[in-house]
Amino acid sequence: MPRILDTYNCPMGRFVNYQLSDATANAKGAKSCKLDSNGAQVVFNLEDSSSPAYSPFGATNYGDDTSSRQTIEFKLNLEQQKHWDAFDNWCLSYLHTNSERIFKKQMTQEQLRESYRSPVTRKEGFEPHLRCKINTSGPKVARAWKDQERIELPSNLRNVPLVPRITLSHM
Fold first, then answer.
1. 84: how many CB neighbours lie within 10 A of its CB?
2. pLDDT, tens digit, for every residue of 102-158?
3. Which of 15, 81, 83, 158 is least enclosed by beta carbons within 10 angstroms?
4. Partners of residue 36 on adjacent β-strands
5. Beta strands 31-32 and 35-37: pairing type?
6. For 78-92, what is each residue's pLDDT tens digit?
7. Beta-strand pair 3-4/42-45
8. How far apart are the first and last CA of the chain?
9. pTM (2 decimals)?
10. How far is CA 126 from CA 44, 80, 122, in A?
11. Short-list 86, 111, 88, CA closest to 100
């Protein structure tokens, strides 16, 4: 399970202090809500150095190799899958309870399930993956270390042992 740095959200009440802001639309019309925990960002490590995470595909842009913001997916173990299933259930319940405020209309659980996009990619015949974004250059570039020393971010992250520090900012 991800190690949540917010002590209020450790396993017993892991999502109790999470809140979603009102929905905002991006340039393409997709809606998202900012996520926080008691006003602070939700930050966690996926795995640790004794049991690193792996990305089966590396960082990709699906055809746009020039972009510095890329998608990276990490394999999830069974415990992590259960955590993210619980997170999805929390999200859907929270959105249902707060749909009037967030979406300016009451929405049913079914309507929310149809439009909700989990951070976990699930495809039949494949293991679930946690889908994230990574900045490979620019002011918020991902940083890498090896043996306590900072190194250049590898150009190919496919199947490289990683301890990703993730900020869960929007849903």
1. 18
2. 989 999 999 999 989 999 999 999 899 999 999 888 888 888 888 889 988 888 999
3. 158
4. 19
5. unpaired
6. 888 988 998 999 999
7. antiparallel
8. 19
9. 0.82
10. 25, 15, 7
11. 111
